[in-house]
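Dear colleague,

Thank you for sharing your sequence with our group. We've completed the structure prediction you requested, and as agreed, I am returning the results in plain text so they can be pasted directly into your records. Please verify that the sequence below matches your submission; if there's any discrepancy, let me know and we will rerun it promptly.
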Amino acid sequence: MILDRKTSPTIYSPQEFNYILPPISSEQLDNGIPFYSLTDSVEPVLQLSMVFDAGLWYETKNAISQATAALLKSGTSNLSSFQINDTFEQYGASVKISTDADWSVLTVSCLTKHLSKILPLVYELLTDTQFPQSEIDIYVQNSKQKLSVQLLKSEFIANRKIDEYIFGFEHPYGKYLFATDYDAIRQEDLMAYLHKAYSSLNCKMFLAGMFTPSDKLLINQIFGSSPWNSQEIQAIPVYPLTPETEKKHRIVHDEKSVQGSIRLAAPFPPKSHPDFVPMIMLNTLFGGYFGSRLMSNIREEKGYTYGIHSMLLNQKNESGFMITTEAGKDVCELAVEEIYKEMELLKTELVDMEELNLVKNYLLGSILGGLDGSFHIIQRWKGLILNGFTEERFYNNIKLYKSITPTEIQALAQKYFDKSSFYELIVT
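Please find the predicted structure tokens below.
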């Protein structure tokens, strides 16, 4: 077929597409680990993610979840940290461990043909990491140095304090670390946390890419043949919210600074609440992308900032709605006033359908991009599964994005854009 390059191709709106979430295989390893997979025959690579209930929510001592994840490749009974990293590099594999408030995730990316070389070492890390004191000392020193540098920045202070105001300092979503927390890290604490939280009972596995039944069999032989680490089911801790009573805060961090960090935030229901998904639409229109109202007003029209963003906090158990920006010290208060003005406009005036369609197309287009290839698709499934949702959630979201009306947007703004519910912080 010869293309007619004189004729422009047909352009379709993202609202016209029929969105389909490709199914994944759902199984269990022999020891009960939930195992989800999606095959892809395009490139001979794969990605295996192991998700553990090992985030801040589960730690019994400050800094332990972060330190455990950071030091998981610090050395086993047989291998030094150098030897571990050298082995991964030898096979062109990437093994990353990240942690947040809810989960810790170990992600292996490698050529499919090297899987048999990589997985035994990953298993060794999970079951035999020794946390050498020399590696702990380096981690503590580097972490304290990094913290001392960050504490000089107003935006870092603002991010710490606004989370504390919303959730309370004793809550996993609101607490932050001090240098003394790093000094208190002990080898025995790391060992205990590894074997308690990084266990077969607290694990879910997600595999995507090019693989064969023999590759799945190998994964089962290594990780599923028997239980590993602790076999005590972790109790899910309960943390009461203890928000700050005072709503308005001004912190002078550096008398000589010319810039201030602005944070406005209010509590918001968790992801399971029926208003959460519609709020994604309102948030995007308000300050969630480059064409948002906050960007148009405060960046383009007023010139107070290079960038301003609003967001829904992406945590499992509690959420919040937040606006963040940095602005010249002399215009911080003016910027706050403009933010509230934009809230009031959404409460009192219906959104033009043309503007709303732009937001719909942006969000739906983002979903289309997230369905390109097995790695992206398994990530979307992972988000659903970890938060306790089914694929129905995906299709309901699509339906809502396509159908939401200006009247529904206004009602949502009237419900949640109450100035009195917002914590207001400026750090200069």
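Summary note from our side: The chain has two domains: 17-224, 248-427.

Kind regards,
the structure core
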